[in-house]
Specification:
The chain is built from six helices and nine strands. The chain is an alpha/beta fold and 204 residues long. Strands 2, 4, 5, 6, 7, 8 and 9 form a seven-stranded mixed beta sheet that branches. A two-stranded parallel ribbon has the order 1-3.
């Protein structure tokens, strides 16, 4: 009887661990099975062009997009004025997916695709709060942090007619160095243009 009970306990524990692990992976983003569309590439290029560095430094663009989370306080998509008159169609999909970017999204020679995990480690090591404590000047520390910052793009949500789109981006150069915004684009003719609507954002 004791042996049976022990066996049942082991099965229960294993089942519980399995369920726990499964629930932990439940919201893990999955790679989108579809390639980027021409519209998505055009929007990404427009954002990158607006954020292109002016000097010789490179913009380190994450090769992986991040999910566009409508429930996030920083996305601002729950703001009534943000999407007034716009009904996004694929929010559920883009909130749990990512794409691997290719070089055709880059809009300038001074940009490169980077591994987000590796670049994040460089950002942490080059954090101005660390380098200043080690004796670097504020100007030198900030300049160095900007040169190694990680620029990331979110998935893009479209309305049914594919005339409007919502997308976020982030620029992280340290624990207290960076910013990000959620933008609304509109297709005018055959060109995607950023509107005056800024749904949400953050600065650190």
């Amino acid at each position: 009887m004791l042996k049976v009970s022990f066996t049942m306990l082991v099965v229960f524990v294993i089942s519980g661990l399995s369920a726990f692990c499964h629930s932990g992976n439940k919201d893990k983003p999955v790679k989108s099975p579809t390639p980027l569309t021409l519209d998505e590439i055009a929007i990404y290029r427009a954002i990158l062009q607006q954020n292109a560095p002016q000097g010789p430094e490179y913009l380190n663009v994450s090769v992986r997009t991040f999910p566009l989370d409508p429930a996030s306080s920083t996305s601002g998509l729950s703001n009534a004025n943000c999407l007034k008159g716009i009904e996004l169609e694929n929010l559920t999909n883009v909130s749990h997916a990512f794409h691997e970017l290719t070089a055709d999204v880059l809009s300038g020679k001074n940009m490169k695709l980077v591994d987000p995990g590796k670049q994040a480690k460089i950002v942490r090591n080059n954090d101005p709060s660390k380098t200043i404590r080690k004796g670097s000047s504020v100007q030198s520390s900030v300049h160095s942090a900007f040169s190694t910052a990680l620029f990331s793009l979110s998935e893009i949500a479209f309305d049914k007619e594919r005339r409007h789109a919502a997308v976020s981006y982030s620029f992280r150069c340290g624990s207290l160095c960076g910013h990000g915004y959620t933008l609304i684009f509109e297709k005018v003719g055959n060109e995607w243009k950023k509107t005056d609507r800024i749904c949400g954002g953050w600065i650190s």
